[in-house]
Structures are given as C-alpha cells and as structure tokens.
Amino acid sequence: MKLYNAEFSGNCYKVRLLLSLLDIDREIVPIDIINKEHKSPKYLSKNPLGELPALEDGAHTLRDSQAILVYLAKKYGKDVWLPNNAKEMALVTQWLSTACNDIARGPMDARAHYKFKFDVDIKKAREKSISILTVIDKHLAAREWLELNRATIADIACFPYIALAHEGNISLEPYTNIQKWIGNIKKLPNYIPMPGLD
C-alpha cells in the first residue's frame, strides 16, 4: 500500500493516522507540493484533481481523504471504525461532511491563511471556526467521542484541523470538551503526531 503524502497536510495526516491505528503496513511517498509535483503528469495519472492524498492499494487508486478513510475502515477495520448498521453509519458519515465543509472553511482556511499565506477571507474563516467549534464542543459535553461512544472515522476526519486550530490563530481555550476529546485521540494505541501536534 502506498500513500502519496505531504507532511504538513491535515488531510494526508488523517489517512496516515488511521493507517497507524489500524497497524497497516504502508509506504509513505512524499510529494513535493512546493515544486508542484502534485500537478505533474505522473501524479495526475493517479489523481486527476492534482490533490493530496492519494492511496494505492494493489490495483486500486483512491483520492479524497474522506473516501480513503471509508475504504480503510471498511476493508481493514471490520465494523469498528465505520459500522454497517444504517443509522450508526449515517451518524459517523455526517461528520465526514462536517470535516470537508464547516471545518475546512473554518479552522483549515484560517491555518492556510496564517501558516501558508493563502489568500482566504480570514474574517469568514474565523466566524466559521467559532461557529463549528461551539457546536462540536456542545456536542461533546455529554460524550467522549463524536459518535457511538468509541473512536470512529468521524473523530479521525475532524481531528487534524481542529487540533491545528492554533496555527490559524484560533484558540481552543474556550472549548474544554474539545480539548478533552483531543486528549482522548492522542491516547489511542498506535497514535502518531504530525508537525504542529507534537
């Protein structure tokens, strides 16, 4: 199995993290995004969108971090990380949408602005960050995990850019339940950090 990876990408990290938690042998293939290797014909043959990550598992190549989490959870995680029960599956997968919408347009965009000098609407990113972090903190008030009283890919999908919020000048100090949840994830067997989460 090969993961095409950029070390500072939260989307790549969530896949690296699940691979580690599942204890799956993998080859990490670094992609030089500064020199636009992800836009090269060779990489575009694997992911025509020119985005990271991409995962090769035998003859299969997948793009999009949320889709890769689903694939790994179903193929290698039995029923634990993504259940088969329709209601439970929906409860978990709704957070994948949250990760690529509210969290992406909030904490992720704020981090992109401050850490990587991306031209984003920082006012809107801060407002979106406060909104979604408030919702998640309230949701976590009566639970340790986002759903099902255990770690699932819901937690893995949402974790990186929330935990990296400080790199976007978004403080997690007001969100004590989120802080506890971050601590729970860091205690999982085979947890690995990424730059900014050491």
Structure report:
This protein has 198 residues and is of the alpha+beta class. The protein folds into two domains: 75 residues, Glutaredoxin (3-Layer(aba) Sandwich); 101 residues, Glutathione S-transferase Yfyf (Class Pi), Chain A, domain 2 (Up-down Bundle), CATH 1.20.1050.10. Helix content is 50%, strand content 8%. The protein is built from seven helices and four strands; from the N terminus they run βαβαββααααα. The chain has a four-stranded mixed beta sheet with strand order 2-1-3-4, with helices on one face. Helix 1 packs across helix 6, helix 4 packs antiparallel against helix 5 and helix 4 runs parallel beside helix 6. It is globular and about 45 Å long. 36% of the residues are buried. The model has no long low-confidence stretch (mean pLDDT 96).
Distance between the termini: 26 Å
The number of helices is: 7
Fraction of residues in β-strands: 5-15%
- In which order are the strands of the major sheet placed? 2-1-3-4
Q: Major beta sheet, specifics?
A: 4 strands, mixed
| Helix content range | 40-55%
From the 3D structure, determine the CATH topology of the largest domain.
Glutathione S-transferase Yfyf (Class Pi), Chain A, domain 2
Low-confidence stretches: none
Rg estimate, integer Å: 16 Å
Query: How many DSSP-defined strands?
Result: 4
Rounded average pLDDT: 96
Q: What is the CATH-assigned architecture of the largest domain? A: Up-down Bundle
Order of helices and strands: EHEHEEHHHHH
Q: Under the CATH scheme, which class of the largest domain?
A: Mainly Alpha
Question: Which word captures the global form?
Answer: globular
Number of domains: 2
Helix/strand structural class: alpha+beta
